[in-house]
Amino acid sequence: MMATSRSSISNARAPTHRARPASSSLKTHRRSLLCRAEDTQTSAANVVTDATFEELVLKSPVPVLVDFWAPWCGPCRMIAPLIDEISNEYGDKLRALKLNTDESPSVATEYGIRSIPTVMIFKDGAKLDTVIGAVPKSTLVNAIEKYL
Fewest beta carbons within 10 Å, which of 31, 101, 110, 131? Predict the structure, then answer.
């Protein structure tokens, strides 16, 4: 067996990067970029709040699907387009609403919302069904169809 020194092995490695040559004509420009996030998403489902919940949900003449969500919740953002599709497809037969649990915590607390997204179906002022989590559209549609 041939003994090799540690330094001869490390010297045999090729460099992984090259340093830029120092040059007086080379200038480094640094720019900063400031981005501001704005909620520009348009939604087919309307917004409901603590203040409007009784009028829009409990006193509704048609069944109501309420999506309990928050803007920081990834799975909530995943099902948002499904809620909009359902709202468009069912038209006047179903009212689809979205309740931001950060902005309207009272209703979420009253109905025991522990995890989001949670979708609840109401009819004649009573909660009939609950679907928790980011589920396929078919799961939401099956839950809705039971009460139309």
Answer: 31
Catalytic residue among 56, 73, 80, 94: 73
Q: Interior CA angle at 130 toward 128 and 133, to 5°?
A: 165
- 35 given a catalytic annotation: no
How big is the chain by its Cα radius of gyration, in Å? 28
Catalytic residue among 76, 94, 97, 107: 76
Over the stretch 5-44, which tens digit does the pLDDT of each residue have?
A: 444 444 445 444 444 555 444 555 556 555 444 444 456 7
Instruction: Provide the mean pLDDT of the chain.
Output: 83
Provide φ and ψ at 74, rounded to 5°.
-60, -50
Any bridge partners for residue 126, and if so which? 123
- Is 76 a known active-site residue? yes
Q: Report H helices in 33-136.
A: 53, 74-90, 105-110
